[in-house]
Write a structure and sequence with these properties.
Blueprint: H1 31-51, H2 68-75, H3 77-108, H4 115-123, H5 130-141, H6 146-153, H7 170-194, H8 199-207, H9 212-223, H10 225-240, H11 244-249, H12 261-271, H13 275-306
Helix pairs in contact: 1-13, 2-3, 3-7, 3-10, 4-7, 7-10, 10-13, 12-13
Length: 307
Amino acid sequence: MSRRITVPGDRWRREDGPAGGARKPPWALAFVGVVLLIGMHFAAPLSGGVYAFTDWDGFNSANFVGWDNFREIMDSRVQRDALLHTFVLAACYLVLVNVVGLVLALALNRTLKSRNVLRTLFFAPAVLSPLAVSYVWQYMFTYDGAINRMLGGIGLDPLRHEWLGDPSTAIWCVLVVMVWQHSGQAMIIFLAGLQGVADELEEAAVIDGARTWMRLRRVTLPLLAPAFTIVSTLMLISGLRVFDQVYALTGGGPVYSTETLATQVYQQTFVEGRFGFGASIAMVMTVLISILGIANMMYQRRRERRL
């Protein structure tokens, strides 16, 4: 009987035997990994979902309270404001990161001699610790910090302000730090998408008389649709669960003006010891992230097919 030679791409085929056909991969080898995945990524959220319907304080036995925790979220002004702040930060962050990241990518996609250095500089904040970055910015936002000193140095003393101490400006300071740190990440994704835009298409558009804006709108942006899908999904999820920047810059203040759902989870669970109530806020945040993230991805995918 002749023996068939097995090629690398055919390693799951039977080498001999009358039946032939495909051999199933040994799923038993993945058993440990699957168990760990379920234990780390699904067991904890599911158990938290159970505690969301209790009044557990972390020490004593948990008593079932039904939907009372969720009613309190809707009745509490602090929780409603935290939900509103979460939406505002996520929406503004999503738009600004896409715009700034795209502008940087378009500017650094050209044959600048220093483009590699500039790309590294703009991307560097994305790999730094959000807490470390936020503490640096906290010093810059203080009344005697770098921003107010710069304003005073150029003759704009009336604009000096206690940026983090004013409820009307504190949340926008958080937004500035978020956009500053993650625009480089969006830039890298857009740069990867721009590498797939063939030079021939740009040249054909130039020959047809299309100006810069028209080439950007009709050629470049439609071909960047997959990159927009990735960036918008990642940044939307990141914006909805923002915690580090708020915690380091303002701690949720002043006067709860920068509280988000994530900071309220920490506050209610580990500061006030209301583990059940904190779990209910976490469940609300998880549901919102899941719904909005999936809806955004579906919309972006349909948009890709239309372009």
